[in-house]
TrEMBL record, chains A, B:
<dbReference type="GO" id="GO:0009228">
    <property type="term" value="P:thiamine biosynthetic process"/>
</dbReference>
<dbReference type="GO" id="GO:0009030">
    <property type="term" value="F:thiamine-phosphate kinase activity"/>
</dbReference>
<comment type="similarity">
    <text>Belongs to the thiamine-monophosphate kinase family.</text>
</comment>
<feature type="binding site">
    <location>
        <position position="210"/>
    </location>
    <ligand>
        <name>Mg(2+) 3</name>
    </ligand>
</feature>
<keyword id="KW-0808">Transferase</keyword>
<keyword id="KW-0784">Thiamine biosynthesis</keyword>
<feature type="binding site">
    <location>
        <position position="42"/>
    </location>
    <ligand>
        <name>Mg(2+) 2</name>
    </ligand>
</feature>
<dbReference type="GO" id="GO:0005524">
    <property type="term" value="F:ATP binding"/>
</dbReference>
<keyword id="KW-0460">Magnesium</keyword>
<dbReference type="InterPro" id="IPR010918">
    <property type="entry name" value="PurM-like_C_dom"/>
</dbReference>
<keyword id="KW-0547">Nucleotide-binding</keyword>
<dbReference type="InterPro" id="IPR016188">
    <property type="entry name" value="PurM-like_N"/>
</dbReference>
<protein>
    <recommendedName>
        <fullName>Thiamine-monophosphate kinase</fullName>
        <ecNumber>2.7.4.16</ecNumber>
    </recommendedName>
</protein>
<feature type="binding site">
    <location>
        <position position="71"/>
    </location>
    <ligand>
        <name>Mg(2+) 4</name>
    </ligand>
</feature>
<feature type="binding site">
    <location>
        <position position="119"/>
    </location>
    <ligand>
        <name>Mg(2+) 1</name>
    </ligand>
</feature>
<feature type="binding site">
    <location>
        <position position="213"/>
    </location>
    <ligand>
        <name>Mg(2+) 5</name>
    </ligand>
</feature>
<feature type="binding site">
    <location>
        <position position="144"/>
    </location>
    <ligand>
        <name>ATP</name>
    </ligand>
</feature>
Length: 321, 321
């Protein structure tokens, strides 16, 4: 298959977004959005961000776009469009490249997103670069720098599931573990929290971040951007009941530093907490209060465990991964 | 330098575009544009799209962004923002990566463009993926499918310069050639025709394409998208006077199939041709009438040379480059 017939094969027969005036087929796409526009880009390289041994091509595409959609959720934005640049090694059969695009299409369809551009080039290693574009009502974009003292810190879903899934994918005997399929699915096909994030538009002030590198990292980003201290209560950090079958040190590592759960962590004024719970109910999202925001001379994150308060560092942060 | 200090080093101290509400520093950038929005993405891989033997890191960045800006010019759009994903092999010193970004910044500054996002990841080969976002007055985006019979076909600048430059860069004795520096500069630091393209907003109808793969390819794209025949007059194809020092077969190859000149080729109603010439004068752009558009049952491009009419194929097209 040459580039032309490949682009034809991924070209949509109709546009899902009414805002789109022109998708793939000219030098650029054209659209019109009356709200604020949100744009982010993320790149995934084989054997660094994913491995063929734990992901099928469909999952590679699904998860790559999920990570980008999660950035939109972290901004309070509705994902609308995506552009894909892909470097394809000659050893990859075109059918597997198509499967990557099918994976992206599967999650894009859930949000009526249109693929509006891209580039396919050959190279030595598979690299997928996605730009996602979304919209948010004017001045309703959610930033990390909006935490204030007295805020409640919340997180959606359960943490550490994706790392547990990755761990199980490295095991020959994964099936002896309880809920192995659940954890593996959470790793391969994570669900960004778009509906819940859009629900939060009812609130005047929310600081928000998505859990791509572990909550230790994300909580520190909020603390730094807002110049506040955040205290997390270890007992309250939500984990799946079957996570308890793994060694304690794994549990600790995964829930604080295990990335790629693509849950949301944020802070809201205490008075708005009941509204957040109502939005969670309405969007069938689990939400848990896990801490509080305090004034602080230096931005810091602590966790309290067995009545001991300890510093929580950005351990999840990786150099140039 | 780790990823954090690198991102700090490329983070702008102020925003050039008033439309930008939030640049680098959160999960995504936020901006507001009242006009139609135009977006495109392009990827460049070492040893496929560029080589260290002919390009310094500064030029690699400059030319990569120039190619993207040229896509905006091809749409009649004003470039505003860009996002950069870069895969960096460990053998590349961080200083050279910074030089790539300096090259991008040099051309971005000419258009007051802001770098609003990106991702830096490690990998085996250098790959740069750029998404560029621009704006165009509502329904003034220029497409390939708008050519009508009787239109004049025009092209900006001179053709084949970039390929001549690449040819000279492969020669030990480049300096014996006339205007070698000119051709090499045209290859390394091409100038997209943004001002001229914006000037064309005065016209109601223009079909437009940029010359990234050679005019044979681009003219065929317009003919196909518009279902018309295009006839080009070989005598009229503009070349630099010093291109004549190269063998005739090189001249022919470069002017029709030599890509990366990033000139514009388009068609306009004959009555608007004087206005196009005026816009060219005002923006100090050379513009040349090179052909005409005709009705045709099948889309075709011909060129007339020595009173002989021959088919011109999309020879410049390359599979998955």
């Amino acid at each position: 298959m040459d580039e032309f017939s490949f682009i034809d094969s991924i070209k949509q027969s109709y546009y899902k977004q009414a805002a789109l005036k022109r998708g793939i087929g000219d030098d650029a796409a054209v659209f019109h959005i009356d709200e604020d526009i949100v744009a982010a880009t993320d790149t995934f390289v084989e054997d660094i961000h994913f491995s063929r041994s734990t992901m099928q091509p469909f999952h590679i595409g699904y998860r790559a776009l999920a990570a980008n959609i999660s950035d939109m959720a972290a901004m309070g934005a509705r994902p609308m469009f995506y552009l894909v640049s892909i470097v394809i090694p000659t050893k990859w059969p075109m059918e597997e490249i198509s499967a990557i695009f099918s994976g992206m299409d599967a999650i894009a369809s859930q949000y009526q997103m249109d693929l509006i551009g891209g580039d396919t080039v050959s190279g030595k290693e598979l690299a997928i670069s996605i730009t996602v574009i979304g919209s948010v009502p004017d001045n309703r974009a959610r930033y990390r720098h909006d935490a204030k003292s007295g805020d409640i810190v919340f997180v959606t879903g359960t943490l550490g599931d994706s790392q547990a899934g990755l761990y199980l994918l490295s095991k020959e005997n994964a099936s002896v573990f309880k809920d192995a399929d659940y954890f593996i699915l959470r790793h391969r096909m994570p669900a960004p929290r778009v509906e819940f994030s859009l629900g939060l538009q009812k609130l005047n002030r929310v600081s928000l971040n998505d859990v791509s590198d572990g909550i230790a990292n994300e909580a520190n980003e909020i603390a730094e951007a807002s110049s506040k201290a955040i205290v997390l209560y270890d007992d309250l950090i939500p984990i799946h009941s079957s996570l308890q079958q793994f060694p304690k040190e794994h549990q600790f590592q995964w829930k604080y530093f295990g990335g790629e759960d693509f849950e949301l962590i944020g802070t809201v004024p205490e008075k708005d907490w009941p509204l957040v719970q109502e939005i969670a109910d309405n969007t069938k999202t689990k939400v848990t209060k896990i801490g509080m925001v305090f004034e602080s001379e230096e931005p810091r994150v602590y966790y309290i465990k067995n009545n001991k308060k300890q510093k929580l560092y950005k351990h999840g942060y990786k150099h140039l991964k």
